[in-house]
Amino acid sequence: MNSSYTHHVILSFILLFSLENIELVCGAFFADPTDGFTLVPLTKANFELQKPYDIPLEQRYSFKDGVHRLWVYADDKPHSPNSHTQPRTEIRINGLDYNSGVWQFEGYGFVPNGTSGATVAQIHGASHGATTLILRIYNGDMRYYSRDLVAKNLYDKWFRLNIIHDVNGGTVTVFIDGEKKFQANDHGPGDLYFKCGVYAAPANISYYMESRWRDIKIFRK
Ligand SMILES: *[C@@H]1O[C@H](CO)[C@@H](O)[C@H](O)[C@H]1NC(C)=O
Ligand SMILES: *[C@@H]1O[C@H](CO)[C@@H](O)[C@H](O)[C@H]1NC(C)=O
């Protein structure tokens, strides 16, 4: 073995070793909520729209340049004539209902200043109650139902939302812009699915409610 070859082998070894270390160190700082998850491909059929039953969709929803815009008024009708729920215009992720495993929703959301008392994202279904997770905007802040603060000052800017539901572990975790903001126990397994848009809270709602969503993705483990 000539010495330049040996030198080369040693250098390569050192380089490889330090690259691995850089990855380890960076991994700790730049861990992404989607690490270790597999993307579930979506088609148009996975996006079911719910809106006040007595008006056409285009009066409460638009899709332009990749942005879903959904809005609703406090005195709108529910999504079905038989329902007594609050008004909503929502995307219901369809065809991917789950009752076990680890699932993740990702989307970039935007809530205009003025929208308040509106659920902008949720996990529908649970053993106890109708929902596992409700994320509402009140005066620009995001709350878990009307309670715990999840994130502040979200008006008029795009934010990245990731929700991880570990059904077997019984937890839901919320990330804003890649940062873990909130974790809670879920409400037991059930027929579970993700939704986003605007759904009026029981109280303290603004007359006009709007949220926008783009790059919606579903992942699983
Ligand atoms: C939202 O609008 C109100 C009323 O116009 C204004 O006072 C407030 O500063 C705005 N908030 C943000 C975050 O822009
Ligand atoms: C509505 O807002 C009032 C005043 O901020 C507050 O006291 C009340 O608890 C709120 N109601 C609900 C259901 O959030």
Describe this structure in words.
- It is a single chain.
- The chain is mainly beta and 221 residues long.
- It is built from 1 helix and 15 strands, in the order αβββββββββββββββ.
- Strand 9 and strand 10 (149-151) form a beta hairpin.
- It is globular, with a radius of gyration of 21 Å.
- It starts with a helix and ends with a strand.
- Bound molecules: 2-acetamido-2-deoxy-beta-D-glucopyranose (NAG) (2 copies).
- One 2-acetamido-2-deoxy-beta-D-glucopyranose binds at residues 113, 140, 155-156.
Helix and strand layout, with pairings?
Blueprint: H1 3-29, E1 38-40, E2 47-50, E3 61-64, E4 67-73, E5 88-93, E6 102-110, E7 118-124, E8 131-138, E9 141-144, E10 149-151, E11 159-166, E12 171-176, E13 179-185, E14 193-200, E15 208-220
Antiparallel strand pairs: 1-15, 2-5, 3-4, 4-15, 5-14, 6-11, 6-15, 7-8, 7-14, 8-9, 9-10, 11-12, 12-13
One 2-acetamido-2-deoxy-beta-D-glucopyranose (NAG) binds at residues 113, 140, 155-156.
